[in-house]
Structures are given as C-alpha cells and as structure tokens.
Specification:
alpha/beta; 4-stranded antiparallel β-sheet; 29 helices; 23 strands; about 10% strand
Length: about 850
C-alpha cells in the first residue's frame, strides 16, 4: 500500500550527511570533555597523542556498529562502570591492547586489528563524568557515517583552529569526482572496455565451436590481469588533509574491480579475488590531526564498501599499516646539515588533490618568514616569487611527470592561476607535457567557504582527448583557454610609465562633504583636501566623499595646516580606542601617520600639469573607462592612466582593448575580471606606440577615434544625469530614477543586447528589465551600441584591419603586433 499511496514512507528519517553530522557532534562533546579535563589536571600529553586516542575511540565505535567488535562490547564497557568512568582508563588500555594483536578480552574473543592505530597503550586519564557523553556517541549509527565528509568534520572537532567551520558545508564527493574520474579512472575505464571486447570475442568464438577451454582460459587471464592492474595503481595526494580525495579514489577503484569480478562470474569463469586495498594510496599531510584522520577515513571507507558490496568476510588483520600516508611537509625538507632542500614524494601513477590556497603576498604572514624564504630559495629557478603557494605542488608534479615518476596529475588551484607568476608554471607544464583537463571557474567549498576554483589535469602529452569546461577542444593553452595563446606576449617599453594604481589610505583620511566644505573655507586647504573617487563611485553613483591628502609632506610642512592635522590626529586616536574596546587588532601607529600608506606619488608626478586623467576599476564586471579631474584622488581599487587625449581614451574603451584585457586579466570571485597594469595594459599594442601617434589635425583616423570617444562620454553623461523636470525643485520620482542610472546597469543592458543579438523572439524584455533594473530603454541601448560599434570600427581603421574580424582574429592580430613591437624595442 505504501508503494502506491505513501512512497515517502520508505525514505529514511535522516540521510547519510545528517547522520554523519549528528554523529560527529556527539563526539565533539567527548573531545571537549577530554581537553577540559587535561586543563584541570595538568596531565602532560601532546595534541598528537590526544588526536591518536580520539581516533581510536572513533574507530572502536565504528567497529562495534559494523560487528567487528562483538556484542556491542564498547557500549557495554562504558555502561558497566556504574557512573565512575575514571576506571575506564585501564579497561580501555586492555581493550586496545587486545585489538592490537587479537586475543581474549574478558569473555569475548577480539579480532586482530593492527594497522598502527593500536600501536601503543596510551590512554589519557578519563574524566569521571565522561560516560554520558560517550554513551550519546555510542548510540549513534557509526556504520552509516560518510567518510567523504567525516574526516573533514572530525578534523574540525579536534583541531581548535578549525572549530569555527564546524557547521559549514563540505566538499562533496561529486566535486571530488571532477578530478578523480578524468585523471584516475578514465584511462582505466577505457582499458576495461577494450578488455571486455576482447573477452567477448574469445567467448563468442568458443560458443561457435573453437577450443572452448583454451578460449575461456585466455579470457580469464585477460580479466585476471586487468583486475591485477587495477590493484597495482598507486594514487598520491600530496596535500591529503583528512583523506577525502584518497577515499573517493579507493572507492572508484573498488567499484571497477568489482565490475571485473561480477563480469567473470556472469561468464561462468573462475572467481577473481578482490585485491584493491588502502595500501595503494599514498598521502602527504603536515597537519597532525589531519594525518591521523586520513588513515582512519580510508579504512572506514574501505570496510564500509566491503560490507555494502558483499565482501564483508575478510581475514585478520582487519587493518593494515598505512605507512604510505606520511606526516611531513610536502614542499620543504632539510638535509643532515640543516640546509633547506626539496623533499622526495613517493612514486605513484597518479597525483590528485587540493593543495593549500594561499596568495604569494600572504605566504610570509601564514607560513612565517623563515619557511617562506627557504621555500623560495629551494624553488628559485623553477617557481616565480609572485606565484601562489599552490603552484609549488604543480611544479613538483610537473617535474615528476618529466622524470617519468608520475603519469597523470589532477589538482585544484585558485581561479587566478592564469595570472602573473602562477601562469609561468602552467607554461612549463605545457612545455614538458600538456594540459588535458581544465575547469576555469568552478564553484567549490574549501574550509567551509564558497569560492571559485580552477581544476587542472595534465600529463606527459599522451592524452589526446582534451576537455575544457566540459567541452572537447583541440588544445588547452597555459591561460586555460582553447583559443589563441596570449602567454607569449611581452611587456612593451612604450607603454611603461602610463598606468598606475590609485591611493591606499591606511587610516581615517576620508571625511564628509560637510567637513570638507568647512575646511575649504580656508583656501590654503585646497592643497590637502580633495574629492575621493572609488570603483563603487564609478560603477554606481558618486558618493561625494572627500579625503585628506598631505602627499609626501614632512610633518613640519603638514603642520602648516594645523586645523586639518588636529582633526586627523583625533580620528586616528578614536579609531585605535574603538578597536581596542571591540577586541580588534589595532594597527601599528606608523611614524608618518599623517600620510597615506601609499600616496600614489608616481601617479601624482605623471599627471602633473594635466587637467584630467583616465580611470577604470581594478575589478569590475564590465571594462568601463571614465575621465577624472586631476583634483580627484583615485582609490587603490582604480587603475589610472596618465593621458588626457580623447584618442587614447577611445582606444582603451574599444572592443579590441576590452578583448585583450579580458584575456590577459584574471577573474575575481568567479565573475568580475581584474585589470592588471602589467599584464593587461603594458602588453597591449596601440595602433601607434603611445606618444608617437599623429595628432587629430594630421590624421583622420586619430580624429575619428577621438570624435567617437567624445560622443560616447557625452552620451553617457547625458544618460547618467538627465535634467530634472523643473530646475531647483525636489522630485522623489526623479531621485529614485536617478539612483538606478548607473554605469553597471547601463552596461548590463548593453551586454544583454549584444549576447542576444536582439533578433525578434531572442530579446526577452522581462530579462532585459531585470538586468538593467528598468533603468534604460531598449532604444537607448541601441544608441549606445551604435556609438560603441562606430568607435570599434574607427580603432580597427587605425590599425588598418577589416571591420569583419572575429574576436579570435582580433586577438591574433594584436598578439602578432605585440611580438613585433617587443622585438623592435629589444
């Protein structure tokens, strides 16, 4: 009746993830009780010893629910204490000793576990009131925990530095399979198809009258050999954490070997033994908690799989030592003289994993000065000093492929991996082998946080099928694209000294418009009070913020503006007091507190004598350029250009430069491209080298670009700030409309217009209104599109290129021009 009318009744009350979380939370109470007891008693043992003990408890609870410990033994031991749980210490020692070697414990026969988990008899002093929390843990269904997330969750329980992540999400098995399947399993599955086809042919021939025994024997040998090949595959995760990648890889290998075993049985061939086992897995982990957990995660997953798939019977010892999972630093070691050296990794067939994400500029803060210096010293000639930390794993894996120690690699990286020093390592990978798999911007969960990552698989060039973002492509270049490879571009000397980052304040320098108005009543303060402009002011609406900027004045010079200096000093002191009251880290009082942390002196010098300059957001969904008066101070999140001519502005705002900057820039947060001075601008070849272009009066091509640049700026200004219905009056509807008139909304509309090609039914007015917040009409977007198109054609004319060039052809032409110019300058 349920099957027809109430099928939901068959659903379990809790899914595996819910069971795993509930189970781990009960164990958190046990871990906390042990730590609090140690603090009260002062008992001396290390965090590593406690971790080892807690993992033993964990496995004992799992073994009890799996039937590996007889008769609910662990629960009976806890209940037998009658409330005085301090006596558990010697009893647990005896139990663990019996599990180590097998034997008798009271009236029970204990199986032989081994595996180094029970390698000593250490049990800390047990709190007398621990029983209740232990029984709560024992009442959970430990046989149903999900090893793919349990290791991570348990690591967060016993490692206080990760305790805040306890309720966060976990990397799912589906995500891990994005690496495991194409890198580890795809070649094996193809080999399995080939073996099946050969076997079928042999057995078909036997059925049609050829020598049945010989054909069947040959078929069996093929299957047995392939099953053996699966069991000999070695998988290395050189940053294995609590073992999630290794567990998923092991489960896939087991599933495949089971297919071979089942196929042989269906064909009535002799049985094939299950031989895939955890000792095929190799790992490296520096964190002691994670190292302990990696081993038990793998074993729990292995034992679960056997019981779920009909292979529950297994000979003792139940556990085998997993000495292949090393507790060590994966990228730095020291020789016998104490000199930093490159550590040796175990030889394996495949490397998979998720190395730590850490930007180059954060390495010293997180790793310490000494370790950072030693790492960069060891890899000095192979990894750029500006590369992300993760690239040291990529480089070691690449070198192992080149040396023939590894066949295939699949690793995660940040989605900025194509930028700066990190990109240099990817270029080396494609020189000595090839990238055959890439996801450039994949959602991922790391340490409980959602972020965007790149997934990269590479080998020695053997793999011919290449997939980029789930599409088959002919080639994956080191910028993780299948199009033209711009990694060979060079910086152009002619472009250097034009683009700059804005001001980095580093203190309470921002002031309100009211304060600015008050200070500017004294005309002398116009030298140090300036309008402030940020990326948000550019893409949304200007917020009319002002900034105190003493430039690079000495304190004596700044003291000539006593009212402003006193105001700033007072704000500094208030900021520090408030930070202390809130328990926040207080910034160190700098010797030159009245100056910006980075006052953009290079930009100030470059625009001296000019009336205006160009800015664009460092990070933005759209690549938009605007003019600023030299009186403005741009934020560090703006990129500024020391030119004031319309021709230059027009080339920057053209589709050609936009394509180049999108290709050369990185992605921020998964969606918003980053404009990098060095890679985006200083490599871009203008129609003429900057400073050598003809004047508007001398060349109609330059005049056409300048004219369309003026038209674009005027059109945008008119749209952004239409005249009010009646000058001098307050109109609520007008003000509300004005707030929606932002360059972001405008260019959202232009992007939608272009992407849909605006052909009849392809244009969805509802969607258009959504992306523009009903701020702009379709006819207005058409006008903007026409102006941009005319500007693009004018820029193409300046290069002497046809208007019909595709985006890829434009990039090819620009690359050729970059290399030509770079060669001429050298």
């Amino acid at each position: 009746k349920w099957a027809f009318y109430q099928p939901e009744n068959f659903k379990p009350e809790k899914d595996q993830e819910q069971i795993t979380k509930a189970t781990a939370e009960t164990f958190l109470a046990v871990a906390n009780a042990m730590k609090q007891h140690q603090q009260l008693t002062g008992e001396s043992y290390t965090p590593e010893q406690l971790a080892h003990f807690l993992v033993r408890l964990l496995f004992s609870l799992f073994a009890e629910d799996m039937g590996l410990l007889p008769d609910k033994l662990f629960t009976k031991i806890v209940k037998s204490q009658g409330g005085n749980y301090a006596e558990l210490q010697p009893i647990l020692r005896n139990l663990f000793a019996s599990m180590r070697a097998g034997g008798t414990f009271g009236m029970w026969q204990i199986r032989y576990f081994d595996g180094t988990l029970f390698d000593d008899d250490f049990v800390p002093e047990i709190p007398h009131d621990l029983g209740k929390t232990l029984l709560q843990a024992a009442n959970q269904d430990w046989s149903s925990v999900d090893p793919s997330i349990f290791g991570t969750l348990f690591e967060r329980i016993i490692d206080e530095s990760k305790r805040a992540q306890l309720g966060a999400h976990y990397t799912s098995e589906d995500d891990i399979m994005l690496i495991v399947e194409p890198v580890l399993m795809a070649p094996l599955r193809q080999k399995w198809i080939d073996v099946r086809q050969q076997t079928n042919q042999l057995l078909l021939g036997a059925a049609q009258g050829t020598d049945k025994l010989t054909s069947a024997a040959h078929a069996y040998k093929l299957l047995e050999a392939f099953a053996q090949e699966i069991s000999e595959v070695r998988v290395l995760d050189p940053a294995c954490g609590s073992g999630n990648f290794l567990y998923v890889a092991l489960r896939q290998l087991l599933d495949l070997q089971k297919e071979v075993i089942a196929y042989a049985a269906r064909k009535e061939l002799p049985p094939i033994e299950l031989t895939v086992n955890p000792q095929q897995l190799y790992g490296i982990e520096i964190n002691p908690y994670a190292h302990e957990l990696a081993q038990i995660t793998v074993w729990i997953g292995y034992l679960q799989w056997r019981y779920e798939n009909g292979f529950g019977d297994m000979a003792d010892p139940i556990l085998r030592p997993l000495k292949n999972i090393k507790h060590m630093d994966a990228i730095l070691a020291y020789d016998e003289t104490g000199q930093p050296v490159e550590p040796e990794w175990p030889e394996a067939d495949v490397i998979i994993g998720n190395p730590p994400f850490l930007g180059a500029k954060w390495m010293q803060r997180e790793l310490g000065l000494e370790r950072t210096v030693h790492i960069r010293e060891v890899y000095n000639s192979r990894v750029s000093g500006t590369a992300d930390f993760v690239m040291y794993w990529f480089e070691k894996a690449r070198a192992y492929i080149e040396e023939g120690k590894i066949k295939r690699v699949g690793l995660l990286a940040t989605n900025t991996v194509r930028q700066g020093g990190s990109a240099e390592t990817l270029r080396e990978i494609n020189k000595t082998g090839s990238i055959f798999l890439a996801y450039t911007d994949k959602p991922w969960i790391l340490d409980g946080a959602s972020l965007r990552v790149s997934i990269i698989g590479f080998d020695n060039g053997f793999e011919k099928c290449k997939r980029l973002n789930d599409k088959i492509v002919k080639q994956i270049y080191s910028d993780l694209s299948s199009n033209i490879d711009l990694d060979s571009t060079l910086r152009l000397q002619e472009n250097i000294g034009i683009s700059f980052r804005g001001h980095e304040r580093g203190g309470p320098f921002l002031i309100s418009s009211n304060d600015a108005r008050k200070f500017l009543q004294d005309f002398r303060n116009t030298k140090i009070i300036h309008p402030w402009f940020s990326g948000r002011d550019l893409t949304d609406r200007p917020r009319n913020e002002w900034v105190i900027d003493f430039g690079e004045m000495s304190f004596a010079s700044a003291n000539k503006y006593p009212e402003v200096l006193a105001f700033l000093k007072n704000d500094w002191e208030k900021e520090q007091i408030e930070a202390k009251e809130k328990g926040k880290r207080v910034a160190i009082q700098r010797d030159k507190w009245w100056l910006h942390r980075r006052p953009a002196s290079d930009l100030r010098d470059a625009i001296s004598g000019s009336e205006r300059f160009v800015v664009t957001p460092l990070v933005s969904q759209h690549r938009i350029f605007i003019w600023l008066s030299v009186n403005f101070r741009p934020d560090t999140r703006l990129v500024a250009f020391a030119r004031q001519d319309n021709y230059f502005f027009g080339v920057l705002q053209s589709r050609l430069h936009e394509l180049w900057s999108l290709k050369k820039g990185a992605k921020h947060g998964g969606e918003r491209p980053t404009y990098n001075n060095t890679t985006c601008f200083e490599t871009y070849p203008f129609p003429w080298p900057p400073g050598l272009e003809p004047s508007e009066a001398d060349d109609p091509r330059v005049k056409a670009i300048a004219d369309w640049a003026r038209a674009l700026v005027a059109w945008r200004e008119a749209w952004l700030n239409p005249p009010p219905p009646q000058a001098g009056t307050i109109d609520v509807a007008y003000d509300k409309m004005l707030q929606k008139r932002t360059l972001t909304n405008l260019y959202n509309g232009l992007q939608y217009y272009r992407e849909t090609k605006v052909v009849g039914e392809f244009f969805d007015q509802t969607e258009f209104d959504k992306v523009t917040r009903k701020s702009v009409s379709r006819s207005a977007i058409e006008e903007l599109h026409d102006i941009h198109t005319a500007l693009d054609y004018a820029v193409l004319d300046a290069y002497g290129w046809p208007h019909s060039l595709t985006d890829e052809e434009i990039l090819e032409h620009l690359l050729a021009l970059n290399l030509e110019r770079a060669g001429q300058s050298s």
